[in-house]
Design a protein that fits this description.
Layout lengths: L1 H14 L2 H30 L5 H16 L4 H28 L5 H10 L2 E7 L2 E7 L5 H12 L7 E6 L12 E5 L21 H4 L7 E4 L11 E4 L21 E7 L1 H8 L16 E13 L9
Helix pairs in contact: 2-3, 2-4, 3-4
Length: about 300
């Protein structure tokens, strides 16, 4: 009985299954087309190009081989297994593509960072420095600083304040030097040339108060104008969530000292006993403020250390 059934099944598969095989071919073709469309959409989102001709050609070859083999049950079985492997590969590729979307490699990331960075040459009576500001990362704050630079508003300004462990009255101790146009500790400060800007949090920009970070001085959030400071060492209490200010919104980093930290540290260590109208900064105002001669954009990086 079992032999008869087996013989009948073989006969059926050999002579009567062409219609079934053709239906299976159409199913395979549809599956492949859907897999290709999915992969095309995912990779197009990742890099704007879509899947390569290699994937599409392999899929179409798979379909054509299935069609060509529909009259041979043994060949059809082999092609069916081969097709399943390709479907699995396409599905895996479609899953991997979105994971890599929006994640450029290190080289392109560095190129973007360079394209969105502006170098500045800072000349002072204490020495020359090279700074970089990041309009791509902190557009509001960096744009405000560059507006002052382009207006030459910092020509003749100064570094006038140093904060360190031996003179800081805030329990959340910091190490910075502050400079700008409008000293906040005098009764009649020189007015800032431009209006205040919105606060740009380090939580949004991803920048931090690391050694050499450039950041804006402020009172209330949204009050920063022309005054800025340079971080000496790590100052995490100045980042978003830090305890330097009761509002815990931190200060807005917009750039970095590339060269000249020796100049910064020399200013930081200077004598600071100048009279002031503000008790909070008593012992922090420099006896001899360091004059900023000029801050200028630098289109080409220097060939050697300045």
């Amino acid at each position: 009985m079992s032999g008869w059934l087996s013989a009948g099944m073989k006969f059926f598969l050999k002579h009567q299954c062409s219609t079934i095989r053709m239906r299976l071919v159409r199913i395979i073709e549809n599956l492949l087309q859907h897999a290709c469309l999915l992969l095309h959409a995912q990779t197009a989102q990742a890099d704007g190009n879509g899947i390569t001709d290699v994937h599409e050609l392999a899929a179409m070859r798979c379909v054509m081989r299935c069609v060509a083999a529909n009259s041979d049950g043994q060949a059809f079985s082999k092609i069916w297994r081969w097709t399943c492997v390709w479907l699995l590969a396409l599905a895996l590729a479609a899953c991997v593509a979105p994971a890599s979307a929006g994640k450029p490699d290190a080289a392109s990331d560095m190129a973007d960072a360079r394209a969105q960075a502006v170098r500045l040459r800072v000349e002072t009576t204490a020495g020359v420095m090279l700074w970089v500001v990041y309009p791509g990362k902190a557009p509001i704050t960096a744009g405000n600083f560059l507006r002052h630079v382009d207006a030459r508003a910092y020509d003749g300004a100064s570094f006038y304040r140093t904060v360190r462990a031996d003179n800081d009255r805030n329990p959340a101790t910091i190490h910075v030097i502050q400079g700008g146009i409008s000293r906040p500790d005098v009764s009649n400060p020189r007015p800032a040339p431009f209006p205040p800007i919105a606060h740009e949090s380090t939580a949004d920009t991803g920048l931090r108060h690391v050694d050499g970070a450039l950041s804006m001085a402020r009172l209330a959030p949204g009050s920063a104008q022309s005054e800025f400071f340079v971080s000496i060492g790590e100052n995490p209490v100045l980042d978003a969530g830090g305890t330097r200010n009761p509002d815990r919104l931190g200060f807005a980093v917009f750039g970095q000292v590339l060269q000249g930290m020796d100049v910064v540290r020399k200013i930081h260590a200077s004598s600071a006993n100048a009279p002031t109208d503000e008790p909070y900064v008593q012992g922090q105002m420099l006896d001899a403020p360091v004059r900023i001669i000029s801050i200028r954009r630098q289109s080409n990086p220097p060939n050697k250390s300045i």
